[in-house]
DNA sequence: AAATCCTTCAACCGCCAAGTC
DNA sequence: AGACTTGGCGGTTGAAGGATT
């Protein structure tokens, strides 16, 4: 289709945000709200791509973020929601006030997933590993040792993106639809 | 004390769906 | 109706810091 790039990459900064960039972004959003992310960088005097600004705001700068360690309740809720929704991190995040999809995704991959594997539970199916022959085979290669980074591609393939777990979502209260947010 | 390995998490990438013209 | 733009999502990467050897 020939999409235009989201920004002029040659003229944007990448990598970690500086304090000054954070301050500019926060000041701009406070003054103008979360408007058009595409035009925000130039309006705010930032050499960043709009996507990058949005991500930085949502995952780090938003004032209502909780941050800090996950409580036991949150931990259990994430597992429960994941068993219902799969890797729908934004939907899971919508039910955890003050948490972001990125934060939950990271927490899942670094903590919960390993914990479930340690308990002999398949983190994909949420069933005992011995029950799911295929999963066991995968987990054998995967193993607890691989619980860290570069995990196996999780299930819920592309096709599910379009389906989007509508039925599952209807079982739960709260925001609905693909763009349900906090 | 230095080197190496491991873990964490902020940030990026590519894709898709919705919205607009 | 369809081309195009934009926002948003999930997967992945890589730097930084901690743990281990």
List the topology elements.
Elements: H1 19-32, H2 40-44, H3 50-61, H4 72-85, H5 89-94, H6 101-118, H7 133-142, H8 158-163, H9 166-170
The structure holds a DNA duplex (21 and 21 nucleotides).
Domain Myb-like: 9-61, 62-112
GO molecular function: transcription cis-regulatory region binding
GO cellular component, one term: nucleus
How would you describe what is shown here?
The protein has two domains: 9-61, Arc Repressor Mutant, subunit A (Orthogonal Bundle); 72-170, no CATH class. Helices cover 49% and strands 0% of the residues. It has nine helices and no strands. The chain is elongated, with a radius of gyration of 19 Å. It binds a DNA duplex (21 and 21 nucleotides) through residues 1-4, 6, 14-17, 36-38, 49-52, 54-56, 58-60, 87-90, 101-103, 105-107, 109-111, 148-150, 153-154, 156, 158, 161-162, 178-179, 181.
């Amino acid at each position: 289709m020939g999409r235009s790039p989201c920004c002029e990459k040659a003229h944007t900064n990448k990598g970690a945000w500086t304090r000054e960039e954070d301050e500019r972004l926060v000041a701009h959003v406070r003054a103008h709200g979360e408007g058009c992310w595409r035009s925000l960088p130039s309006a705010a005097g930032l050499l960043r791509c709009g996507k990058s600004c949005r991500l930085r705001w949502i995952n780090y700068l938003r004032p209502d973020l909780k941050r800090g360690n996950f409580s036991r309740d949150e931990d259990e809720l994430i597992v429960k929601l994941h068993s219902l929704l799969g890797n729908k991190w934004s939907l899971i995040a919508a039910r955890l006030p003050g948490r972001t999809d990125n934060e939950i995704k990271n927490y899942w991959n670094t903590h919960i997933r390993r914990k479930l594997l340690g308990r002999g539970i398949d983190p994909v199916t949420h069933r005992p590993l011995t029950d799911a022959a295929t999963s066991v085979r995968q987990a054998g290669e995967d193993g607890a040792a691989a619980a860290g980074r570069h995990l196996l591609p999780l299930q819920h393939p592309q096709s599910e993106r379009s389906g989007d777990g509508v039925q599952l979502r209807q079982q739960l209260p709260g925001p609905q639809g693909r763009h349900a947010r906090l």
